[in-house]
Design a protein that fits this description.
Strand 4, helix 3 and strand 5 form a beta-alpha-beta unit. Helix 1 crosses helix 3 and helix 2 runs parallel beside helix 3. The protein is globular, with a radius of gyration of 17 Å. It has one domain: Aldolase class I (TIM Barrel). The longest helix has 12 residues. With 215 residues, it is an alpha/beta fold.
């Protein structure tokens, strides 16, 4: 349901090109986190969020109002012209929006599509890689788990490690399992390192874009 080839996308795209999305920002950069860290990627950050993590470093994305409305046509053109082979749709919470028009447009341009989501809303769109980053105070929908490629859990305390295991148990075999220290909580690093040494099925995700000082 969520994976469509380029040809199918081209056949159905024209009707979607003028659909608009509230977009906080879109830019060409390096993916800094998770299994695809280090890859050249075009980021599309939608506006609007129903999770509102207190540690969020893009709080400006929470409200839809005040951000430009961009068409699928404009976003596809920008992503294609950047030369990036890979588009990351993030937020905010991107699944607050129906992503089918945007993802079909991007697929028609031959681009791979990666979403980063809390899973708080139903999946939509044609997606090649789904990163679930679940939050304890806004649990994912049940349907998201069977489609997850990568589980990435932000860790501050031991409660988050327990939460990570609860979510991992619902994901398919072979899902990449990653723990990520919260940037402003240094104690979480030691906690994660010790945990991964004892549970090597997990790996560690770092926010490498912050070390590199890129967007």
């Amino acid at each position: 349901m969520f994976k469509t080839d380029t040809q199918i996308a081209k056949e159905h795209t024209e009707q979607y090109l003028d659909v608009v999305y509230p977009v906080m920002e879109h830019f060409y950069t390096i993916q800094g986190e998770g299994a695809h860290a280090g890859r050249a990627s075009y980021f599309i950050r939608t506006a609007g969020c129903d999770v509102n993590c207190w540690w969020c470093d893009v709080k400006d994305s929470w409200e839809e109002e005040g951000h430009p409305k961009l068409t699928v046509r404009e976003l596809v053109k920008a992503a294609k012209e950047s030369g990036a082979p890979f588009v990351v749709i993030t937020g905010g919470e991107p699944l607050l929006h129906d992503l089918l028009p945007l993802t079909l447009g991007l697929k028609s341009a031959g681009l791979q599509i990666h979403i980063e989501t809390s899973g708080s809303s139903p999946l939509s769109g044609s997606l090649d890689w789904i990163t679930l980053s679940p939050k304890r105070f806004k649990k994912p929908t049940d349907e998201v788990y069977s489609n997850v490629d990568e589980l990435k859990v932000v860790v501050l305390t031991n409660k988050d490690l327990k939460w990570a295991e609860e979510n991992a148990a619902k994901c398919p075999e072979g899902t990449r399992l990653l723990l990520q220290p919260e940037w402003d909580t240094p104690k979480s690093i030691e906690l994660i390192v010790d945990y991964v040494k004892e549970n090597p099925e997990w790996g560690i995700s770092l926010q490498t874009h912050k070390f590199l000082k890129v967007p």
